[in-house]
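tl;dr need the bound structure. longer version: we got a ligand (magnesium ion) that a collaborator sent over and nobodys looked at where it sits. i said id run it. heres the input, straight from their email, havent touched it
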Amino acid sequence: MNTPAMPTTLAALAAAAPGYTPTDLRVDIARRIILAAVTPLAGDEPVPLRAALGRVLAEDLRSPVNVPPGDNSAMDGFALRADDLSNDGVTTLVEVGVSLAGRPFAGSVAAGQCVRIMTGAFLPAGADTVVMKEIVRADASDRGRAHFPPGQSRGQNVRCAGEDIAKGDTALTRGTRLGAAELGLLASLGLGAVSCRPRLRVALFSSGDELRDAGEPAGHGQRYDSNRHSLAALLARLSCAVTDLGIVPDDPAQIEARMTQAAACADMVITSGGVSVGDADYTGAIMAKLGEVLDWKLAMRPGRPLAFGRIHAGDRAAWIFGLPGNPVAAMIAFMQFVEPALLKLAGAAARSAPLVLAKSATPIRKRPGRTEFARGTLSATGEGMLVEAAANQGSGILRLMAEANCLIVLEHERGDVAAGEHVPVQLFAGLF
Ligand code: AMP
Ligand code: MG
């Protein structure tokens, strides 16, 4: 087979992408280049269930047991043999015992007999059918007899062993990110630990002479570093191990030292600020010095500058993203580029962010030729999903990010949106 060789440098990889224009790069092409460059980290390790939230399964997981483990009742009622029931009249059977969840009836059900049974209790030997108690006439004064109406069907109200998952079936496939339902499922199989891909190590720092840490005094011309906090929170949601390397001033030597320190301890380095073309924007140049960088101007709003590369520290290498400094732009660039890259690095199966189509409540100004991510508020109304774009879309206004619950994705080719037009929306939060 004639497989083209994988380009060895990021520059070659990018140049091979159709439509590659680094000074005005389409969002979808940028994402494709990033995802083509990043490959999953090798390795796996056993992880106890409670520590596995957000981790990626390293192997197809076959069930060691049947779920449910045995035939059991879906109702409170009576277990009996379907052959005993008359098709056209009431049938009377003798009640010979009780089967409770966790305390099954020890005997078996013979012809003419029934056993009182609770939801989840194992079906006694001999029985094949459950009749719900609400339609059975049985009272204590009746010497242990129960009367059943006609019209029951064989096997009704019985959950069969292995009905949810049969022993040996694949319960979860490799590459699955473990969430609440997956962890519950693994526990239901009796597994106390699972084989997971390595936990990603991410190092984070902010750059800018003007930045101060929250909790400290800030003087004239200074502002608080919010990016490290919003980005660390986004990383925590992805279950990464985060090393916070603080704030670095706009000083090339200090940025280089911090970048090297970051590359020495992380699989991925994330910086924000200093990535534009201002006098004090050194991030891209230092990335290039320590490895290789794709220094982009994206056809995107907010968040035009983005640097992506690979840097070295001794014999270690790490991926690195230089995000824009503006707080909203930094968060959106993280969601659109860094998160997919981290998921691929973690070995997670590819999955694009779910989109909802909603009617725009208002007109939205949009210039064709760039992708715009507008902050919006999505709500369910009698006429379907309605989204309201924030009136002010300034890329530095974090308050609007906090008030919004979604991003309206205004695609590259799209022009102005009229009120009532449908637009795709990415929700900030899912159910779990
Ligand atoms: P820069 O990308 O360094 O030119 O920064 C663009 C804007 O974002 C400037 O107004 C910076 O002060 C601001 N900024 C940069 N980094 C941060 C940060 N970590 N937290 C809050 N604002 C920032
Ligand atoms: Mg700066």
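gonna send this back to them w/ a short note. The helical segments are 10-15, 27-37, 180-188, 227-237, 252-265, 283-290, 327-345, 398-403.
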